[in-house]
Write a structure and sequence with these properties.
Blueprint: H1 8-12, H2 18-28, H3 32-46, H4 56-79, H5 85-88, H6 95-101, H7 103-109, H8 116-138, E1 141-148, E2 156-162, E3 170-174, E4 184-190, E5 196-202, E6 209-213, E7 223-229, E8 240-243
Antiparallel strand pairs: 1-2, 1-8, 2-3, 3-6, 4-5, 4-7, 7-8
Length: 251
């Protein structure tokens, strides 16, 4: 019997073609192992909050964050079955998704030249980063999706202003292209009178998903964009590679 493990995530998200979805459904009716894994994936998907009506891109991005995390934990579980204590570090409601995300750090550090203590430090850092992203998404709030354009088609980022008091806005980027040395991605907040205010400047870290905090207040702005700049300060000078649609300004 050929299992459908690699297709279960897309199946749970409804992203398979009808013929492929029918094939997976038929397999699940006969395979208890795949059926149990599909059930676990569905539980994680149910943890996702509802997105704002009509703004599908943030919802797909949120799904991708958790789907990426799920795929990565499978590697850690296969190679480190003796590290069962890892699960006890995680919140029960997100034990599967959070554990999967830890593989980003753990898998990269598994080699003979690094000590276990160094591995644990990186794992803990990645866990904290992932849980921070998920918590911000779960809180709900305002969303601006910036779609990539021209050579950055396929890249994108969602600026999220969490509803919870005291939680700063942040952007979750996906598929960021690498930049030449000395160049920076810059997030801009744009007002209706075309005033551009720098919200964040950063370098891509090479991961599929990257979160970046926004340091400027979003009140009064009704769109956002990303440019490529040569400096971390000053006026906008570089090309726009991502931009959002105009929405009512934040109060």
């Amino acid at each position: 019997m050929i299992h459908v493990t690699d297709e279960l995530e897309l199946y749970s998200l409804g992203a398979l073609a009808p013929s492929d979805a029918a094939r997976v459904t038929a397999h699940l009716s006969e395979c208890p192992a795949c059926r149990e894994q599909a059930r676990a994936i569905d539980e994680v998907v149910q943890e996702l909050p509802e997105t704002l009506p009509g703004r599908e891109a943030p919802g797909r991005l949120r799904d991708r964050i958790l789907a990426s995390a799920r795929a990565e934990l499978a590697t850690v579980r296969a190679s480190r079955r003796d590290m069962a204590w890892t699960a006890r570090l995680l919140r029960p409601a997100l034990v599967l998704a959070a554990g999967l995300w830890l593989a980003v750090g753990a898998a990269a550090l598994v080699n003979e030249n690094l000590s276990l203590s160094n591995e644990l430090k990186v794992v803990a850092s990645d866990r904290a980063t992932y849980e921070s992203i998920v918590e911000g998404i779960r809180q709900g709030g305002r969303w601006w999706y910036m779609a990539g354009k021209d050579g950055w088609t396929g890249s994108g980022g969602t600026l999220i202003a969490p509803r919870a008091e005291g939680r700063p806005p942040f952007v979750v980027f996906h598929d960021l292209r690498p930049l030449p040395q000395g160049q920076l991605y810059t997030v801009w907040l744009v007002s209706s009178d075309n005033t551009w205010v720098r919200g964040a400047t950063f370098r891509p870290d090479g991961k599929d998903v990257q979160a970046v905090d926004v340091t400027a207040a979003i009140a009064g702005f009704d769109s956002c964009a990303v440019t490529i700049e040569d400096s971390a300060w000053g006026r906008r000078a570089g090309p726009v590679v991502m931009e959002s649609k105009i929405v009512p300004p934040a109060p």
